[in-house]
Known about the structure:
heterodimer, A: 6-stranded mixed sheet, 11 strands, 0% helix, B: globular
Amino acid sequence: GENVEQHPSTLSVQEGDSAVIKCTYSDSASNYFPWYKQELGKRPQLIIDIRSNVGEKKDQRIAVTLNKTAKHFSLHITETQPEDSAVYFCAARSYGTGKLIFGQGTTLQVKP
Amino acid sequence: EAGVAQSPRYKIIEKRQSVAFWCNPISGHATLYWYQQILGQGPKLLIQFQNNGVVDDSQLPKDRFSAERLKGVDSTLKIQPAKLEDSAVYLCASSPSMEFGYGYTFGSGTRLTVV
């Protein structure tokens, strides 16, 4: 079935360092890949997304890359700040129904 | 624009009791999703509606869970009878259409504790 694998499950970095979270999807027909940030006790919030016809997208300190051949996409956060600490989820959109399949989440801790 | 509204925010029930959650999506959003998020895990889709029709309910435990979206707007998710393993946050999300690659907008969720 459709599946999204996300790594690492936890990531701890020093403030100012970069953080990278990686995801692999199984459905080769997936065409849309959003990333969500979820703070403790709050709803997931969309932070960046990429469509299958684009290889890279950047928004200030956040970037996402997509390798369709390898069915792999990654989130890059540069110059991390303590407020970046949260759980991050990747997702892949099922082409048929449009539903999002989520990864297991990465808990990012940015130490001041 | 107003966000996705969910109620209640919290609910504590005993096992074998029943419970219902309500969701009102963003106005004009045709697609509505119910997700279950168990602590420490990613959201798992329970059911997807397009207007008032079910698109995908393959992971809905139909012996105890039911959902409806009668007029194609708001939706209700019910659990009867509840089990301890149903303790989770139930997230409702909506998007303009399942044909477009829009990210969802999530509601604040309902945190269910079954004791």
